[in-house]
What we know:
Pfam families: ADH_N, ADH_zinc_N
Protein name: Enoyl reductase (ER) domain-containing protein
Mean pLDDT: 94
Helix content: 25-40%
CATH superfamily of the largest domain: Medium-chain alcohol dehydrogenases, catalytic domain
Family: Belongs to the zinc-containing alcohol dehydrogenase family.
Structural class: alpha/beta
Oligomer: single chain
GO molecular function: oxidoreductase activity, acting on the CH-OH group of donors, NAD or NADP as acceptor; zinc ion binding
Strand content: 25-35%
Largest sheet: 7 strands, mixed
Keywords: Metal-binding, NAD, Oxidoreductase, Zinc
Amino acid sequence: MGKGGMSHGGAGEDKDGEEENMAAWLVGINTLKIQAFKLPPLGPHDVRVRMKAVGICGSDVHYLKTMRCADFVVKEPMVIGHECAGIIEEVGSEVKALVPGDRVALEPGISCWRCDLCKEGRYNLCPEMKFFATPPVHGSLANQVVHPADLCFKLPDNVSLEEGAMCEPLSVGVHACRRANIGPETNVLVMGAGPIGLVTLLAARAFGAPKIVIVDVDDHRLSVAKELGADGIIKVSTNIQDVAEEVVQIHKAMGAGIDVSFDCAGFNKTMSTALSATRAGGKVCLVGMGHSEMTVPLTPAAAREVDVVGIFRYKNTWPLCLEFIRSGKIDVKRLITHRFGFSQKEVEEAFETSAGGGNAIKVMFNL
């Protein structure tokens, strides 16, 4: 968990007779075990939250399959999970804005607030960031967690706990749209209709993008994108030789210049397509953790002054995400395709479902 903690044996009761806090531990490749997890002491500005909804992210699956995600490597057992919402059980002595019983969505990253990046407001880039389920920091797929109160956002009455947990992936799309200055005059291309591509589509629409085209290799995900409001959907191949022909299809579907392209897949081909399809003077945003090295047509894009923008996590997005959901501007419920409880068997099945692709978009735990 963000505040630390440790494993201490199996299930049962602790020495005070209270129910032990259980969590899903990643203990090896393709091996998750529900084990006891000792919470850290509650600090004056912390809250203790009973988890009620936790989603599975692609990074969780990467850690399960390979014990690493990009440069982050799991070297010892780690509690998994970071997309979460729950109910406040206890508050620290200095916490004024939250009380037990409040339903909250948790922003999973704790920055230092002392470095230059934090001071200039770009705390998502803090080199000392402690982020749920990013080694060596433990995550939130547990009965309870301890977290700073200022990173727990009260849910509006008409927003469910599952929707609260969906604020985390939605935040990636919202941050991407802010970085790209999406508005009512911005035509948008989204490469990839996985969970992040779909939340980027939803965010771009909420920011006012008048026309959005999305491409993917999978028919089912494209049909979901169409349901969610994409103006055009294009099925593409995985063959890099098809880029030029597919760019023609994309331009035809858009019927206008593409101002911003979001690459939400991170492959040579998707980035090459985005760079080639975007109009002169436009932007290409690489959202999330793509391949660490790519071979792309950068010089032709530079000659057209296409800006390449990086997107890493998010900052100050939870209030806007909650407002989008509360007001009905964004409906994240359609993205939740599978639900599981919190038993050893169900945890294993949930990760198998998420990793297997197919019709799964967002897999959610109900604790």
